[in-house]
Amino acid sequence: MRVLVLGGDGFCGWPTxxxxxxxxxxxVIVDNLSRRNIDNELEVxxxxxxxxxxxxxxxxxxxxxxxxxxxxFDVAQHYYRLLSLLREFxxxxxxxxxxxxxxxxxxxxxxxxxxxxxxxxxxxxNVLAAVVESGLDIHVVHLGTMGVYGYGTAGMKIxxxxxxxxxxxxxxxxxxxxxxxPANPGSVYHxxxxxxxxxxxxxxxxDKVRVTDLHQGIVWGxxxxxxxxxxxxxxxxxxxxxxxTVLNRFLMQAAVGYPLTVHGTGGQTRAFIHIQDTVRxxxxxxxxxxxxxxxxxxxxxxxxxxxxRDLAKIVSDITGASVDYVDNPRNEDAENDLFxxxxxxxxxxxxxxxxxxxxxxxxxxxAQKYAExxxxxxxxxxxxxxxxxxxxxxxxxxxxxxxxx
Amino acid sequence: MRVLVLGGDGFCGWPTxxxxxxxxxxxVIVDNLSRRNIDNELEVxxxxxxxxxxxxxxxxxxxxxxxxxxxxFDVAQHYYRLLSLLREFxxxxxxxxxxxxxxxxxxxxxxxxxxxxxxxxxxxxNVLAAVVESGLDIHVVHLGTMGVYGYGTAGMKIxxxxxxxxxxxxxxxxxxxxxxxPANPGSVYHxxxxxxxxxxxxxxxxDKVRVTDLHQGIVWGxxxxxxxxxxxxxxxxxxxxxxxTVLNRFLMQAAVGYPLTVHGTGGQTRAFIHIQDTVRxxxxxxxxxxxxxxxxxxxxxxxxxxxxRDLAKIVSDITGASVDYVDNPRNEDAENDLFxxxxxxxxxxxxxxxxxxxxxxxxxxxAQKYAExxxxxxxxxxxxxxxxxxxxxxxxxxxxxxxxx
Lengths: 405, 405
Known about the structure:
2 copies of one chain form a homodimer. Chain A is globular. By secondary structure, chain A is of the alpha/beta class. In chain A, helix 4 (79-89) runs parallel beside helix 6, helix 8 runs parallel beside helix 10 (308-319) and helix 8 packs across helix 12. Chain A has a single domain, classed as 3-Layer(aba) Sandwich (Rossmann fold). Chain A is built from 12 helices and 16 strands. In chain A, the strands form 5 sheets. Chain A has a 7-stranded parallel sheet with strand order 3-2-1-4-5-9-13, sandwiched between helices.
């Protein structure tokens, strides 16, 4: 089994590459280091001391004897490099993490909106066009988001990607159809994922490309059994207002003695999954590839749901931190329910790590252990969903955002 | 009334700019001349002898006394140029034609797929982000396509953009919802238009941008009363296999004494509209802008439907040409019905030019008049929907397609 991991230096990509390597796959990583470069832009860094790629890969070689090959280029820009690699390596599966993945970052300014759009949509289209042009039978596994569904489902359980609806025709008949769940994105980042879905559907229909699209919840946790094998393999932990998820920000606030800041009423319900389950889900998705001619396989990659204020309470109970309610910068409903179908992964054998069991480890092994590396000023979320802020620091005649590296 | 016409040198953009100028609007055109450059690439040219932009604009000034300003830049690439122009000109409406608009061209090779995706999606996102960043209350009018609906509607009349569906909930209730009509694009070009729709919906929801999306049928006809005022104002007429629509190819085949080539059985039903009605529809769309807070207004911009083989018969009856049935390069159903709702424009006062009345003018005034300019080799459609053809003539390390001019 050969797997190409696009975005294999990132928070999900890196542990996925190691997990698949340990499971016996031949793994090649492509990454343009955009996530590290964005750290430079935002003047933040991972709480955990992540190592340069070549150090990481050497440590993995020492720990396991396994080689992981690594190519630094931009999937959204260097199509022919990608195509050549597909032809040389002939992977069975391409795991596509090569997208800008933070909603707040995508809303920081018009530049960030445009970077997110051009990077994400060109990356996805390049992957699909290259798979077609290669003529190889490559399964594309894509990391999508639960956010494509939106968060207001009238008490209905969110199905896995497709929705059965009834349409009344002009002559009074009723037609049943299964359609792609109507998109309702909450940020420019989420919007690109809904646009990705249409690309998958099209290339699947026209070119019979086999695609699995994983609608992932918010990932929590930092380490996997593989990243724990050597300090140099440690995974990144983001706590800043753009890339830090709500849970990570709570953990850091508690670790540095700040109150936990809950946006609005904290009544937003979100879906979660542990990073160990993420990498296991990717493996299961590869093992359970769609058949030839099958439509895009969509799975909800999440294991539990929580309201934000309840998360704050759990972290507060473990750490003793207090809770502060602040204004919500996002343009969203104050309170929402969320019921999610996730039967497919459970039937494939996923045994979830629960928040109740795993959270204490995060508090002691990550947040408290590395607390002295935290820059407290970076914790608050500052992106405004409705501000018309300008592209800070860019010349007025700058071209389209580019990540060429 | 101030109107910015993006793509104002193109087949629809040019007569629209003139029509609005004559109707009293202050018009500014932006165009990167991509359509003329693509003629160079394809080694074809408009059957009609179109003039350079500055000649066109001088002729319009002579004919009417009206000034139309013109800026040559790429909307998909030069965001800050667009933003400055919005701030300086402060248009009431932006008419967005700045997209690659030929389905066969979008399927010629992986390079053409990628050019279409990056050009169209970045152009649309740039327009929306710039309108938001400008802080101005600008109505965005976009040329979409009937092709977003797909062509298999089980005998149902295609509504104007939104579809009322019933969903059964887990607890047995039925919820009625109006959703964006499920997308079913037939080419990479059409796919980008379905992705555009999600961008309009998002910016409308988050930023309250007022948007009208026009789902246009196949445009036929060449001239409008404005383009007829001076020979130098003549509109383009494309007959080649990529940009020439089915009707134009029939007209040319007849004019040069070739049989009319019908793809497959010719049972494909398509929607049509005359270019004079196109420009009138744009004017009506601007006059009937959505209110603040209103969702994206979607109108079907077409006036009649015909099966391709019936079109061939009409042209054959007028010209005496014979009809040839050849293989269909597209990946589509051989036969389809098409019923389209188009009440909104009719209620606004549109009085359609019908094929029955207008076609003879096209035969005599355009196809026969300029027949000696026709390159017969260029008439056949050569793009294959399923071939994995390479980007002809491109270096193997070429970057992302760019139209920087």
